[in-house]
Amino acid sequence: MKLQQLRYIWEVAHHDLNVSATAQVLYTSQPGISKQIRLLEDELGVEIFARSGKHLTRITPAGEAILEVAGEILRKVEGIKQVAQEFSDENKGSLSIATTHTQARYALPGVISKFMGQYPDVSLHMHQGTPMQIVEMAANGTTDFAIATEAMELFGDLVMMPCYKWNRSILVPKDHPLAQTPAPTLEQVAAYPLVTYVFGFTGRSQLDDAFKSKGLTPRVAFTAADADVIKTYVRLGVGVGIVASMAVDAVQDADLVALDASQLFEPSITKIGFRKGTFLRGYMYDFIEAFAPHLSKDLVEKASLCTNKQEVAALFEGVEIPEH
Question: Cα 199 vs. chain centroid, distance in angstroms?
Answer without folding.
Answer: 15
